[in-house]
Each structure stands twice: as C-alpha cells, then as structure tokens.
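dumping these here so i dont lose them again. two proteins, back to back, each one seq then structure tokens. dont judge the mess
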Amino acid sequence: MLKKLSDFLIGETGQIKKVEGEGKVRRRLFDMGVTPGANVTLVKKAPLGDPIEVTIRGYELTLRKDEAILVTLEVKEGK
C-alpha cells in the first residue's frame, strides 16, 4: 500500500518509492538521504503534525509537513 510520509502513524515503517517536488526542495531532500529505496520509520509527530521526526539510514531526521507530503512510501506490513 502506498502512503505519503505525512500520513504515517508513529512507529510505522516503509520504503521510499517516489520523491516529488522540484528544484531546491527536491535537492535538499536528496541531500538529506531521502531517496528511493531508503527505509523510513516515523518516530515522533508534533501535536499539530508539524514537524515530524523519522529514522532514515541510521539517523534521526526532522522534516516539515510540506516536505513530508512530497515523499511516497510503500508501507511495510506487520511492523
């Protein structure tokens, strides 16, 4: 099942399938390691959903909701 990173629930894990966006925003996400094939786990979410904290490539990364909505993942079932 495909799902946007901004819609993940705490503890949910998935593999990045697509990174949308253009220009500087897309380049910034790639520079932070948000690339297709990477596994991501949602660790924390602020009360209003912005920002979120994820674990990706062995480190903690904080993303704004407008960045997280650009990342499409395949949810790993049973995690």
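---- next one ----
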Amino acid sequence: MKLKNYFKILILSLITIIYSCENDNDAIELSSENRILSFELSKNSYSKAFNISENSVDGTVDSNIELTGINLNIAISEKASITPSPSSITAITGPFTFTVIAENGDERIYNVSINRELSAENSILDFRINDNNFSTFATINNDNNTITQRLPQTVSLSNLDVSITFSERATITPSIDNLIDFSEPVSLTVTSESGIERTYIVNIAHMDEIFSKTCSEMNAWKWFGGDNRTTAPDIDPYDRNMGTGQTIILDNDLNPSNFSIHLREGFRFDEDDSPYNQDVELKLNIRNSEGNIIADTTTTVFGNFNGGFITFDLANKNLFLESNTVYIFQWYLVNGATLGITAGSSGNTDEESTGFCFNGGYNGQSNLRDNTNLEDINVWGQHPWNFNIVLEGNE
C-alpha cells in the first residue's frame, strides 16, 4: 500500500515538472525598445519637428521664438516610459536630457540641445526728433540706408534730442546717449545679433526753402462775424457769431511764418449797412485732425480796413506742420455776437478741383443764448466751400 502511494506521488511530481517547463517556454519576453520616435516643439501657432539621432535631439527654432512657454510633444517606443515628463518642460535654457526606459528596464539617455537662431535683423525702425514745441519722425530709407529730416531754424542741430528704435537684439554704435550734435552728417552702425552690420548716414538740416501758397480764386462770400438784424427770421439780434475754417494738407513739412484770410469788405452793421470803423480782433485756432488746438494767435484789423487779406503772424509759434497730415485752421471775430458786426468771408464753390486750395472748408456758429462759443470744436462743421487763404513759411 505504501509502495503504491509512493508511485502516485512520483508520477504527480513528474507531471508538475513537465507542466512548469512548458509554461517557462511559453512565457512572453519583455520589450527592450527604448527610443524617441518623434520630437516636436510648439508655441502658440508655431511648431517644429526635430531630427532624432541615436542618442540625441538637436536643432534650432526661428529667431523670433523665445524658448519659454513652450510645449513638447514626444512619441516613444510602445510600452516604454520617459523621464522627466515632457509636459514638465515649459522652457529651455540650455542642454538637458531625457531617459527612455524600456519595458524590460533597459535605459537610453538622449541629450537634447535646442537653441534659438541668432537674429539677422539690423534696421533702424524709428528715428524720433524731440523739441520743446513738437516731436516728429525722420524719414528712413532702408534701400540706401539714409535718414533725413529738415527742421525749423530755431532748432539747434548741435544739441538735438533724438530717440531711436532699432531691431530687437541688435546693437547700435555710437551709443545714442552720446549723439547730440547733428550739425554734420552722422554715421550710425546697427549690428544684428548674428553679427551683420548696417551703417546709416543721418542728414538733418534746417528748413531754408521758401514756401508760399495762395488761394485767391473767389466766387462766393459767407457771413462772418455777428448779426445785429432785428427782422431776420429765427435769429435774435446780437446773439450769434459765425467763423470760417479751412483744411490744410502739405506735401512737405513746413515751419509756417504767416497765415492770411480774406474778407470781402470792412466790418459793418447789416441792419442799416453802416460801417463799424473801429479796430477789431480776430482769433485763429490751429487744430489737429482730432480737433485739438495745437496753436492759436490773434491779429488786429484796423477800423479803416475795407477788404482784402488779413495776416496772422505765426513766426514766434515755432510750429512744425508735418507733410500728408490734416490740420484745420479756424478763425473768427472775437466778441462777434456782442459787437453785432459782420463781413463777407471769401470762398470758392468749386467742388471738383483738388490740391492745396481744395481740401475742405469749415463753418462755425455760436450763440449767446445757448452759452456756446467758437473755441468749442462741437459748434464747427464742414462746409462745401473752400475759403481764400495764404500760407507762408519755410520747408
């Protein structure tokens, strides 16, 4: 009986050994793959895939892409893992490594070196000239590397306040802090981050060419000044004051010296057509395209004035009017409503012509009863006529 049990145990042991050997032969081998298959960097709308060698990833991004706030999208071998996690890399400040670990534990280290390309930009973008009375941008010609500007005679070229904007990451010599004398041409060299140089020649000179434009063709006359009529419909006597204006657009920068307007006759009371025969004061406001007053002045019209051009002296205003820019000149009789006197503001009704004399007129009306005055831009509006003026100065 004991022998029989012994044989049973022996047979069971043999069967167990055979079964275990068969299971060992059928066991799944763990993967040894531990490679980076693709490597892509993205930032906002920019993305770039990098070449992968046996144990490294390297390359460059565009010069305008800072290596901060980035995302890495990395594909690796199936069943492998990677450390550190690509999602943890949001900035690259130098070389670093990734370790890819195969399913069976084998490791492969990748050295990663990604840099930003050095910028080749070496341009002067803005050259601003600052003065007590104005600020303007000089003309930059990047085809022949010149910077030019003409300035009023009152501006000292040997002690000029300038500010320059140039390409990001570039350098400029000599240092702008040392550039104060532009009485002679000045050379500025801009060197890109990658070492490429560009030299600009800066020529700044005084305005010394005489400018004079006259708009004298007239075929209409608009009410200008106050109104003393007692019989005019919907108008109270000694209540309204009417002014005139004209848009000025120049082909070249200008330092104006005089501005003149034309009245058909001397001031009079319209009720009985009697002359006023006393001195009056006219006010001129010069506004920018937003309606803000940039300069103003007054002039006296003597009592014996019988019509013609009346001049406003602008020489001491040191104005700098820029080319291709809208300026609005508006003039009116000071205390016109109270005085109740009027004259005819000469104009031209031609709506087809173009050029300096035809950039558009203005008309303004204030009323004492409404507590308005002609200093307020809101009482002015465009007028279909162009008014007779003379503008003089240096360009």
